[in-house]
Every structure is written in structure tokens, then in C-alpha cells.
Design goal:
The protein is about 45% helix and about 20% strand. The chain has helices at about 30-40, 65-75, 85-90, 95-105, 105-110, 120-130, 145, 155-165, 170-180, 190-200, and strands spanning about 5-10, 15-20, 25-30, 45-55, 60-65. The chain has a five-stranded mixed beta barrel. The longest helix is centred in the last third of the chain and has 15 residues, at about 170-180.
């Protein structure tokens, strides 16, 4: 099975990208967060992949972070959640937010994704509640963010960067890196200061 692709971003669409690996173009279906994280056409990129095979279709799903792929696999284990719905959830929410929603039984947060009604959202959080703690939030959400209570310094720092115009994935990555550098007890102000340097760089 193809687990990872490393090459050049050749082309993108609304929910897909073509990755050129040594002259071979791989079509991968992605969440909007992954598409945003891949960069510009022509740039080098790496995607973690999952191959979905059915009787009528075979498609490669691509993820900017291994944690996002892990959550995709977990989501698609829930009855009624196919690859499109799982990608819609991961487009609307970061992996840290999905983890927090499942841990806290917050079906309303999951229901923010396109195509996810209250009933399906409730099934998702009920089935994944016990599994949520076993998976990391991942770099796209900030592994440290996932363990931080709502309103914590890292969550507030991510929100502050988003308000300054940074994309959620970029803001979360920068804050996660800042917290890794400064430590778990870093203040919101220090996190924002260091994260801004990371995001701008």
C-alpha cells in the first residue's frame, strides 16, 4: 500500500491535488486544510496517504500530517461515514478540534461539517469517545493543543494568530512549535510572540 508520497505539487482542485513523484502524477483527494498546507504549485511537498478500494472505485487520500490520516481512518470506521464525509469533517475542524469534540461528547462541533447531521454527529462522538485519547492531535492542530483545556494559553494563541489573518493550519503549527520550544507553562503572550516568528518565517 502507498503510505507516503514525496514530490512536487503539480496541480490542485477544490478537493484534490496531483503530486509529481519522479515524473509520475498521483491524484490524491484532500481536505481543504491539507490543500492549504501543501503550498504553491511547483513546490516540494509530502503527503501521507490512505488507499481506499471498493468494488467500483479506487482512490488515494492525501494528508499533510500523519495524525490527520489516523483520524480519517478512525472516522471512516463509524457507520455512515465514508471518505467524503470524513474529509468534510477534517476540512471543517482541525484534528485537535475533532479530538476535543469526541472526548467531550460535543456533537454540535462535529455537525459543523458539511453533510454531517446531528444524528450522525452524535454517533461519531459516541463511538470515538473512548478512542479519542489514544490519538495525537497532530501538528496541524498542535499536539499540545489537544491536551490543553478550552481557553488555555495555546488555544488562545492560535485564535490570536487566526485573527491576524493566518490560516488555521499555519497558526496551529506555529503555536505547537512555540510551545515545544517554550514548554507547557508558557504564557499566551510568549506563545504568540514566538509563534508569529515561526508563522512569518
Amino acid at each position: 500500500m502507498i503510505a507516503k508520497l514525496k514530490g512536487l505539487l503539480d496541480e490542485t482542485g477544490t478537493d484534490w491535488a496531483v503530486i509529481d513523484v519522479s515524473g509520475v502524477g498521483y491524484l490524491v483527494h484532500c481536505s481543504t486544510k491539507t490543500l492549504a498546507a501543501l503550498g504553491e504549485v511547483g513546490e516540494a511537498c509530502t503527503v501521507y496517504t490512505d488507499l481506499q478500494v471498493s468494488e467500483t472505485d479506487m482512490r488515494l487520500l492525501g494528508f499533510a500530517e500523519a495524525a490527520e490520516r489516523d483520524w480519517f481512518r478512525l472516522l471512516t470506521q463509524v457507520q455512515g461515514v465514508g471518505s467524503k464525509v470524513a474529509l468534510a469533517i477534517l476540512s471543517a475542524l482541525s484534528t485537535g478540534e475533532v479530538q476535543a469534540a469526541c472526548s467531550n461528547g460535543d456533537a454540535a462541533m462535529i455537525a459543523r461539517a458539511n453533510g454531517v447531521g446531528p444524528k450522525l454527529a452524535g454517533r461519531i462522538v459516541n463511538e470515538l469517545k473512548d478512542k479519542a485519547g489514544a490519538l495525537p492531535g497532530g501538528g496541524m492542530a498542535g499536539a499540545t493543543m489537544a491536551a490543553t483545556p478550552a481557553g488555555g494559553a495555546s488555544a488562545d494563541a492560535v485564535s490570536a494568530l487566526e485573527n491576524l489573518g493566518f490560516k488555521p493550519a499555519v497558526a496551529a503549527r506555529a503555536v505547537a512549535a512555540a510551545q515545544g520550544e517554550l514548554g507547557e507553562d508558557a504564557s499566551e503572550g510568549d506563545l504568540i510572540r514566538v509563534a508569529l516568528k515561526r508563522a512569518a518565517g
